[in-house]
Amino acid sequence: MTTSFPGYRDYPTTPVTPLQRAAVNEILQSIGQAPVSTLDSSNPDVAIAWNTLVSSSRDIQAEGWTFNREYHIQFSRNSDNILEVSSNYIQIDLTNDPANVNHDAVIRTDASGQRYLYDRFQHSDKWYYNPYVDVILKFNWEDIPVPIANYVVARAAAITSSRITGDTTQYQMLQEREGFCRAQALEYETSQGDYNFLGFDRADSTYQPFSPVNMLRRF
Fold this sequence. Notes:
disordered N terminus, alpha+beta, 219 residues
């Protein structure tokens, strides 16, 4: 591929960043546990909080947000006409353009663990052109916007509570916190994406929302 994006380091990273440790400590404190100075995987509570943070981050980023969506990116084939896919790509869809009409891409993995694009319409992993795609990316924790990161931590805290304490009252309170943080995340997304109920204003969008003011023009 010719285009590079911020990579995603699988947890745990070495060394653990202060933001990652702070996120885990917030989860632990939410369930009544003491904060830790190091993320020791031998501590079962820390391990559960850490793994839950990882999975929650992946799941929420997979929804696709303004910060981790990229449109009209050209993929380049290797010498074997294979389109290799790096680990920080969560979803890939062919851009809606004439060159892609007779193709449909899905991500698959070969025996060596290398991810690649498979063409469902042509029933082949060979590509004889360099298609444009729309993608959802998986970002490092440090690169996630604060409202989204807060939502991830809130969800992880609620799930961790159900896994460790089993306190229904605590779980309900953490779920309410999760709902509040999701509302903030959606407000951020709406502001950043410039969405409206008629569609969204993007220069490369094929969708043109109805604009009543344009119907009042006099020629």
